[in-house]
Amino acid sequence: MSGGLERIRERMAEYLSGCGVAATAAWPAQERLRQEGVVAAVTLRGCQAGPAGFQSYLGERYNQETQQWEELYGRKVHLTFGLDLYAPPGGGEAPLQAALDTMAQACAGAGPEGFHLEEFSSGETVYDSGGRLLRKPAQAVCTVYLYAVTQPDGAFLDFEIRGERTT
Predict the structure, then answer these.
(1) Which helix (H) or strand (E) segment is 57 a member of?
(2) Which of 3, 23, 73, 115 would disulfide-bridge 142, Cβ 3.0–4.6 Å?
(3) What is the pLDDT of residue 1?
């Protein structure tokens, strides 16, 4: 499942980093580097899935490579991302606020490919005594379509994430 839920936090972190906010998926597999400035820790706080079509059937598409029709099945998924900002306390709250402003601007745009950003919110800055860092909580709610493609024999090939286009 190369495009499924296992990489969803990384995709959001890559998007934020590309928009100018240093971001990392919380609890990465490799050892985390100590950040000097502000960093956003991307977590998945909530995931709610529902039907996107009759019995999850979304239709068919023609695959140019195989020259065959493929059936699509999927679900509409609402994701709540934790985008908490952390910074050393020596710089005060100003660097956190600047990073929050950049993040809010990124979340007001199109968002990562396949994601439809619906909501963005943040809270007050607090001191995290465990990490000895300042923490500004933030979160974003997105809608995606998680769908699977079937082979002619009915076996599922892979799951991918697709967004919802709105005008």
Answers:
(1) strand 57-63
(2) 115
(3) 31
Residue type for 62, please?
A: Y
Using CB atoms within 10 A of its CB, is residue 134 exposed (0-12), middle (13-18) or buried (19+)? buried
Q: Going by C-beta distance under 8 Å and a sequence separation of 6 or more, which residues neighbour residue 119?
A: 140, 141
Q: What fold is seen in the domain 5-162?
A: STM4215-like (3.30.2000)
What is d(CA 90, CA 133) in angstroms, rounded to the nearest whole number? Answer: 9
Amino acid 3: pLDDT: 46
163: number of Cβ within 10 Å: 17
Show Cβ contacts of residue 45 under 8 Å, excluding neighbours closer than 6 positions. 80, 81, 82, 139
Q: What's 138's DSSP letter?
A: E
Helix (H), strand (E) at residue 72 = strand 68-87
